[in-house]
Request: fold
Amino acid sequence: MIPLSVYLFLLIELVAVAYIDILSKKIPNVWSILNLAFFGLFIFLMPDEYQLRVATFFYSLSFLFVGFVLYLLKIMGPGDSKFLFSFYLLVPATIHEKVFICLIYSTIVIGSFFFFRTIIRNLDKMKQAFITKNATLLRKAFGKKFAYAPVMLVSWIWFGIQNKELLSLK
Reply:
């Protein structure tokens, strides 16, 4: 279960962060710090949903580690992985897996859309890159990373729609 107030708070936060991420392609650290502060507060205010256990940190730390690797590969920005890490601390551990499944599906669908759109828009550049065996031109044709916070927003909305029974009026 997740308190409806927490779900709505996170929804509003994701709208704000997604907007900032789309405009600036960066997620300021203040959002991650805010989430960490709220996590500390939630431990005391809602001890049934938020506890200091290994299960609470499993997904968050996994996102931080994988996000760091993706950052080194220039696939994901550092703000994305830090925000995802701190955001997941505010998701009760009992529903981590359900939220993760929505996040994976959203990432696949939205990422595929952008991937194929990029290919269609840059087909001539890509053909030229293959003909000339120019990897730099190919990388330029694919462009930069896309904003990930909007993907998180879509997955959060999808989670809420699919799992209404998990939202409690606490």
About this structure: Helices lie at 4-24, 29-45, 54-72, 78-89, 96-121, 123-132, 135-142, 149-162. The chain has a mean pLDDT of 90. The longest helix spans residues 96-121.
